[in-house]
Amino acid sequence: MEFKLDTRLWSTKARNLNPYVPGEQPKHDNLCKLNTNENPFPPSPKVAEAIAEVLSNQADQLRLYPAPESDDLKQALAEAYKLEVNQVFVGNGSDEVLALVFASFFLKERPLLSPDISYSFYPVYADTFGIELVKIPLTEDFSIETNDYRQPCSGIIIANPNAPTGILLSLEAIDKLATEHPNAVVVIDEAYIDFADQPEASAISLIDKHDNLLVTQTFSKSRSLAGLRVGMAFGNPSLIEALTRMKNSFNSYPLDRLAQAGGLASVKDEAYFEETCRKVIELRQQLTSDLSDLGFSVLPSQANFVFARPEQGNAGEIAQTLREQGVIVRYFNQPRVSEYLRITVGTAEQNQRLIEALKQRVSA
Amino acid sequence: MEFKLDTRLWSTKARNLNPYVPGEQPKHDNLCKLNTNENPFPPSPKVAEAIAEVLSNQADQLRLYPAPESDDLKQALAEAYKLEVNQVFVGNGSDEVLALVFASFFLKERPLLSPDISYSFYPVYADTFGIELVKIPLTEDFSIETNDYRQPCSGIIIANPNAPTGILLSLEAIDKLATEHPNAVVVIDEAYIDFADQPEASAISLIDKHDNLLVTQTFSKSRSLAGLRVGMAFGNPSLIEALTRMKNSFNSYPLDRLAQAGGLASVKDEAYFEETCRKVIELRQQLTSDLSDLGFSVLPSQANFVFARPEQGNAGEIAQTLREQGVIVRYFNQPRVSEYLRITVGTAEQNQRLIEALKQRVSA
């Protein structure tokens, strides 16, 4: 049914939204889907087992509301990351967690600071909540210069590794940012941190030192559970309490019983998690090397994707050609990055299919 | 770990929240849990089958993001309710849907109107979004007088059947409200509508007539899926579009893959759904009769709970005595309703256990 859009009854806020546009989720099979940074490996088999157990032994449970604060899942995360349970928050994917973060900490008179090239949902949240976002340009080589953040602000949000560049900021730099902005909340969005070469890259180790530091993570990437919607935040109990109150003013039960059970099983299977991350890191190294051999300039990625600029040819056209061959990558037609393709690290077979498609193009 | 709450880094919005307090979810077994209006019967067996199928045949799917707009589930709902798919919205429980409704339609200079006794999350949302909520008193017998709503407003929100009274508003009255307020969005929150005696009680039949009428429903009550978090809204495509944009400015993927598959299976099993509703209605009639025999005044409920006032004794003390016997009901220590208990309709055995506990108390 076609309809004529009528915004007469909408709030001004609704009229002024600039919604996030997720990477497409095509329904066709046999596509080589390297566009939304999903993990090429399935989740731990323990996840399906735990969910099946809820369904079989306790099917009756689905009729009951879930634990509103996801207590068992938070407890497991606290143990895994050697934290107290009141330093842990969970939500319906890290996107929901980030929305609550914006409302809880950045809705102030001073602006929020974020790199000019970063996760494209940040400006959307800023618009949604009426927050002034000041974009701090990355340096020429797409890295973050912490001195550029020396200005009054309500907070700073940085994706680390950054998206779509994949470049990692050091713990020393994060420590410096948190120290230099004691009255601002510094949020490190670590969606991709588990793919870093060094295992100690996470800023979680700094939250006991800085009461203004909040770290967000997700089950969607390194835990292969984008389909289950679980995200989390780690920080000082007073920051966690703000998020909890904000959650309970929007939606009390954001995680269903199956997501809580599946998430818990994933956290407990540490060996599978570490093995998967190691394999993705190896595949990234191989993909980087293969793309370089084809003349691409590849930024030094610590994530499960690479950001690569072709030696010649238009990146948008290359993305289109790849699509015609059934290989989907992400292209951002935006200043500074329009010469690049963001390519998710796939399985060895998927990466090979991409490389073959690119070779065909070169030889054509 | 005890901690001293420090709100220094919170936004003013975070400091001023009055979060919703859900009914408790005790973890002990053998409790007779009649406090949160869950369905006493399990969901359709097709739900567990559909989820098990995602896990077994397609376990790999959990690594992929879900369909952001829950297309298949919306299509099934459209067919079940004889609507176009662009008249349907789904969210992470009707609580999330309602939060988006408040931001999309009520965030205006004129106030929102709602009955003084209704779902206790409404004032929480109003606080969250900074919306002025004017409470219109129910009449002496707890019914809604539509003429009392004749005042300038951004919108009207009414739970129908109302909570915690269980009293149903007629379609004629809803038709009148929508007609008399062409520039306000009239939201009918039908969480409990499927338990009405007449099968045609839903205002969905009026949405083609009124472009300002929005109906919300949930899978948590009549579909026995409180544990899965699925809610929906039905209305004119322009209203649905506002909700979609607002969703995509907060959280693009609120329904995980399992919730989408389970919800779809539930919608398709219409026979099970109707049978369950019929059984709950019969049990409500029996419970009402048994409580009346014990001297309770029971409001005429069309929901899966009853609101009952004891002939003598303090309602709060009775709730406490019941709790000591393992029977949990909900008590609201608030003006006008503090003499009542809200009792969820349980299985025949649960209802009997409640009645026996109340009899013991009388004879003690």
UniProtKB/TrEMBL annotation, chains A, B:
Catalytic activity reported: L-histidinol phosphate + 2-oxoglutarate = 3-(imidazol-4-yl)-2-oxopropyl phosphate + L-glutamate
Pathway(s) annotated for this protein in UniProt: Amino-acid biosynthesis; L-histidine biosynthesis; L-histidine from 5-phospho-alpha-D-ribose 1-diphosphate: step 7/9
Name the record gives this protein: Histidinol-phosphate aminotransferase
Residues annotated with N6-(pyridoxal phosphate)lysine modification: K221
InterPro entries, per database record: Aminotrans_II_pyridoxalP_BS, Aminotransferase_I/II_large, HisP_aminotrans, HistidinolP_aminotransfase, PyrdxlP-dep_Trfase, PyrdxlP-dep_Trfase_major, PyrdxlP-dep_Trfase_small
SUPFAM superfamilies per record: PLP-dependent transferases (SSF53383)
Domain of life: Bacteria
Alphabetically ordered keywords of this record: Amino-acid biosynthesis, Aminotransferase, Histidine biosynthesis, Pyridoxal phosphate, Transferase
PANTHER family listed in its UniProt record: HISTIDINOL-PHOSPHATE AMINOTRANSFERASE, HISTIDINOL-PHOSPHATE AMINOTRANSFERASE 2
Gene3D superfamilies per the UniProt record, alphabetical: Aspartate Aminotransferase, domain 1, Type I PLP-dependent aspartate aminotransferase-like (Major domain)
Family: Belongs to the class-II pyridoxal-phosphate-dependent aminotransferase family. Histidinol-phosphate aminotransferase subfamily.
CDD domains: AAT_like
GO biological process, one term: L-histidine biosynthetic process
Domain Aminotransferase class I/classII large: 31-358
Record's subunit section: Homodimer.
Cofactors (names): pyridoxal 5'-phosphate
GO molecular function: histidinol-phosphate transaminase activity; pyridoxal phosphate binding
E.C. code: 2.6.1.9
Pfam families: Aminotran_1_2 (PF00155)
